[in-house]
Specification:
Layout (H helix, E strand, L loop, with lengths): L10 E4 L5 H10 L1 E4 L8 H8 L4 E4 L7 H4 L7 E4 L9 H6 L3 E3 L6 H16 L2 H9 L21 E5 L3 H12 L3 E5 L6 H6 L2 E3 L2 H7 L2 E4 L13 H6 L5 E4 L8 H9 L5 E4 L10 H5 L3 E3 L8 H19 L16
Parallel strand pairs: 1-2, 1-3, 3-4, 4-5, 6-7, 6-9, 7-8, 9-10, 10-11, 11-12
Helix pairs in contact: 5-7
The structure holds (2R)-2,3-dihydroxypropanoic acid.
């Protein structure tokens, strides 16, 4: 009689709750440490959870740095369920010989839709108007006493960060007859500038001339407080500022003070410094629309993000190049 020796399944960590069907599929191939209760790990817990696993699915709530990796001797891939990866300390991940992946493309249109929705809600004071209505104020309707907004159509949109999502915003802006100006690390090709009818300008010119400013740039130490006191002072008093990029790109304290003093018309924020905590001054203001980092949050897109993260993880563990490998340079040769 022969005894069959079962090979143990490789261990992986799924650090946040994912769709049950996706988890069940993973469990066919892996021994999964899951966190369907969705209690965010402390740094110490994360370090322990990463020890002994060969792969991890994580999100922005998990900071992957040298400390987190210090006991992760078996780890080969860390797959972010997010396109932004400012939660990754890439040099530390490289030093640990771990592949890092993200989820580009699958969320571009959904996120651009949301950027536009936030712009519309901010300029036309939609959430504030709803509160006004719910507060029984409709009887006070008058031509001059509604929450009066600023126009979006035929105004100038200034996009800071003209990657995939920024370009998605530009496409939508054209449908509103807007003039598109942008500022980016590098200029688009002439063909792309022509197709978005977009003009490249300096950051200063953009701040001075745009009616609506949309931030879609990645968070890096160089981009910290891209918008602060000095930048807000350049903006038109009728301008709106929309941040769907990352907290830390805007100095929230400076923004709250400017909104309170009426230095700009309004702001729409999907991301915050230190989120999920929101600066208390922002919470007090009516001229800011606040959203809990939901730009990519449609069911179809969140499923696509989870699926892509899993595809990345499986590829790395099968010795293949993951479709969206961030640190390809570290694995050359
Ligand atoms: C991303 O993918 O970076 C988004 O911010 C997540 O919603």
């Amino acid at each position: 009689m022969t005894t069959q020796i079962k090979t143990p399944k490789p261990k992986i960590l799924v650090a946040r709750a994912i769709f049950p069907e996706a988890l069940a599929k993973l469990e066919e191939s892996f021994e999964v440490r899951s966190n369907q209760a969705d209690q965010i790990f402390t740094p110490e817990e994360l370090k322990k959870e990463l020890s002994g696993v060969v792969g991890a699915l994580v999100a922005g709530s998990e900071r992957i740095d040298a400390a987190a990796l210090s006991q992760a001797q078996n780890l080969r891939v860390v797959a972010n369920i997010s396109v932004g990866y400012n939660n990754f300390d890439v040099p530390a991940i490289n030093a640990a010989g771990v592949m890092a992946t993200n989820t580009p493309d699958v969320l571009t249109d959904t996120t651009a839709d949301f950027g536009f929705a936030l712009l519309m809600a901010t300029a036309r004071r939609i959430t504030e108007s709803e509160h006004w209505l719910r507060g029984g104020n409709w009887t006070k309707w008058s031509i001059i006493n509604n929450p009066l907004g600023v126009d979006v159509h035929h105004s100038t949109i200034g996009i800071i960060g003209m990657g995939r999502i920024g370009q998605g915003i530009a496409k939508r802006a054209l449908g509103f007859g807007m003039k598109v100006i942008y500022h980016n690390r590098s200029r688009l090709s002439e063909t792309d500038e022509t197709s978005y009818q977009a003009s490249y300008v300096s950051k200063e010119e953009l701040l001075r001339t745009a009616d609506h400013i949309v931030l879609v740039l990645p968070y890096t130490p160089e981009n910290h407080h891209t918008i602060g006191v000095k930048e807000i002072a350049l903006m038109k008093p009728t301008a709106t500022l929309i941040n769907i990029a990352r907290g830390g790109i805007v100095d929230d304290v400076a923004l709250a003070a400017a909104l309170k003093a009426g230095k700009i018309f309004a702001a729409g924020l999907d991301v915050f410094e230190g989120e999920p905590t929101v600066h208390p001054e922002l919470l007090k203001l009516s001229n800011v629309v606040l959203a809990p980092h939901i730009a990519s949050a449609t069911e179809k897109t969140r499923r696509a993000m989870v699926d892509l993260a899993i595809e990345n993880l499986r590829a790395a563990l099968n010795g293949k190049k993951p479709p969206s490998l961030i640190n390809a340079e570290a694995f050359k040769g």
